[in-house]
Design a protein that fits this description.
mainly alpha; MetI-like fold; 13 helices; 2 domains; 336 residues
Length: 336
Amino acid sequence: MSTYIVKRILLFIPTLIAITIITFTISRLAPGDPTELKVGVSGENMKADEKSQLNQQAKDYYKQKWGLDKSIPMQYLIWLGNMATGDFGNSFVDNRPVMSKIMERIPVTASIALMIISLSYLIAIPIGIYSAARQYSAIDRFSTFMLFVFYSLPSFWVATMAIVFLANVEYIKIFPTSGLYTLGSENWTFLERAWDRIYHLILPVTCGSLASFAFLSRQMRGSMLEVIRQDYVRTARAKGLTERTVVLKHALRNSLIPIITLLGGILPALVGGSVIIESIFSIPGIGQLAFQALVARDYPLIMAELVLAAILTMLGLLLVDILYAIVDPRIAFSKK
């Protein structure tokens, strides 16, 4: 297993380089010029005669400063060399180091993603098991209908409706509409601040996990139905074991393999999907930062976000392979 992990990590390097070449080229060829945005921002508070001085010379200055006057291949080689040393450059917007801005927001997005994954799996697995064990029952049919409804609802629409009806004084004012804490909470006790953070995250986590746990529940039900029809499960029933023992001890472990496979895609998808949830609820996370970088054509920040997403995807796939061996010892990654 250790040899396999080392080989997979080494394979990350050419894979990451290929991903960065594609994303770097696309970002540079996309419409929009960051120098025009920068010149416009610089002249917002100036008089008319001062604004007239922000001409092509100012744009050329920023292009030279940011290295945009070079060819795209040369820009990529410079960026790749800096990235190899851990330097992702400075933001075009405020000239702050890109990694500093990302590290400030990673804990927020990571905590939300972990809560969504945990909630999705904690709900999906029991529902999937029960639906498979009680196939075609009234509860199975009802849960199937509701899960399809949840899966078909767009997260941005659910989040908007939640704000309108559950965080609005005109309807029901139960939850806050935005942010991660209440103003003035820095003077509260630790438990009060912890509850305040949870209170602000209830709506974002719920809206972000609806589609995930609905999809996982259906996959868990299908996997469980396939496993409980196997010969070894019928043999366990023939021995006189209870249905609970048959399902939880003999069928559950093998039925988890497809669910583990989905984990490799859910983890990076949550980071990408956080753009919607964090923008709607005004949460200062990676998703909101990525949206702001796209609007401002902030190339260094965009590339750093894309590299982070690529690394998370590859780590998710590696995590899936490791969990395979834990769930099913028959799976091995070394030749005998």
